[in-house]
């Protein structure tokens, strides 16, 4: 009985080893095919969401400028997906949780990369933001022009806009929801431009990967915009270097991305963070 049992276990282990080796060999064998298929996407007549893989923002912009429009700073890009961005998405709820938790100790925030005030419009029905609360959006000049004009038409007197982050003044909270993909510098460089470091950082929809940082091009409307997939350890280390400690982290599987032309690089992970100074 014992010998029979060991025999069955040995054969089961042997079969598992063979199957595992076969699967690994198949994966390695398919890798060149995946790479070739990705490169062929450059020739596809259908629009691609993500194209190319570059080591720096500058290299990605050089490639983007070969197209009709490059970057986000264009009047015709401002209204793209505006209505959708004004809706509350499932991945907004951790941000809402922390904002509601902190409202008792803050009187305003800078919404970096806040587009035309889309998060203000999405969150206003769910948070007590009226009165003296300051919601200041920092973004690119073309986006700020569109946002300011729309806010004036809607008489949103609590919503303000700046195209230099230092003009936001001292703010207790820095919100970056979808900022990091498009920011062309480390976050620490942007924070150091403010009159003082915000005590709280809420960062959402950060595209991360385990390997080195990659910059691809995202198609937004008719423009190609550099899009960062950052190394997570480097990203967190940059913020920790300013004296921030990580309080919370959440994952957003629905926003994982793959580069159509470079599938061999794998998918990014989207995540959110809350950091507190000191």
Descriptive overview:
The protein contains 8 helices and 11 strands. By secondary structure, the chain is α/β, with parallel strands linked by helices. It folds into 2 domains: 46 residues; 228 residues, Vaccinia Virus protein VP39 (Rossmann fold, 3-Layer(aba) Sandwich), CATH 3.40.50.150. Strands 1, 2, 3, 4, 5, 6, 7, 8, 9, 10 and 11 form an 11-stranded mixed beta sheet that branches. A hairpin with a 2-residue loop joins β8 and β9. The longest helix has 39 residues.
Relevant terms:
single chain, 278 residues, alpha/beta, Rossmann fold, 2 domains, eleven-stranded mixed β-sheet, 8 helices, 34% helix, globular
Summarize the structure in short:
This protein has 278 residues and is α/β, with parallel strands linked by helices.
Instruction: Please summarize the sheet with the most strands.
Output: 11 strands, mixed
How large is the count of helical segments?
8
In CATH, the topology of the largest domain is named: Rossmann fold
- Gyration radius (Cα, Å) is 23 Å
The CATH class label of the largest domain is: Alpha Beta
Please state the structural category.
alpha/beta
The domain count comes to: 2
Organism: Rhizobium miluonense
Protein name: Putative methyltransferase, LIC12133 family
GO molecular function: methyltransferase activity
InterPro entries: Put_MTase_LIC12133
């Amino acid at each position: 009985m014992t010998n029979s049992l060991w025999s069955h276990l040995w054969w089961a282990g042997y079969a598992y080893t063979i199957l595992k080796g076969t699967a690994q060999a198949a994966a390695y064998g398919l890798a060149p095919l995946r790479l070739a298929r990705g490169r062929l996407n450059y020739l596809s007549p259908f629009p691609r969401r993500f194209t190319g893989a570059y080591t720096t923002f500058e290299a990605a912009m050089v490639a983007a400028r070969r197209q009709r429009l490059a970057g986000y700073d264009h009047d015709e890009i401002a209204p793209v997906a505006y209505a959708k961005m004004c809706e509350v998405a499932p991945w907004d709820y951790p941000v809402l949780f922390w904002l509601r938790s902190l409202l008792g100790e803050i009187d305003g925030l800078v919404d970096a990369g806040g587009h035309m005030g889309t998060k203000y419009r999405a969150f206003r029905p769910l948070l007590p933001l009226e009165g003296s609360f300051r919601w200041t959006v920092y973004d690119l000049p073309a986006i700020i022009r569109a946002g300011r004009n729309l806010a004036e038409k809607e008489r949103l007197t609590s919503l303000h806009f700046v195209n230099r982050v230092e003009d936001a003044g001292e703010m207790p909270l820095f919100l970056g929801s979808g900022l990091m993909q498009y920011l062309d510098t480390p976050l620490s460089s942007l924070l150091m431009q403010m009159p003082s470091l915000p005590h709280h950082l809420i960062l959402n929809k950060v595209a991360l990967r385990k390997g080195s940082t990659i910059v691809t091009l995202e198609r937004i409307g008719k423009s190609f915009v550099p899009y960062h997939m950052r190394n997570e350890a480097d990203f967190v280390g940059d913020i920790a270097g300013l004296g921030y400690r990580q309080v919370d982290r959440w994952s957003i599987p629905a926003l994982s991305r793959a580069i159509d032309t470079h599938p061999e690089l794998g998918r990014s992970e989207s995540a959110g963070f809350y950091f507190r100074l000191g």
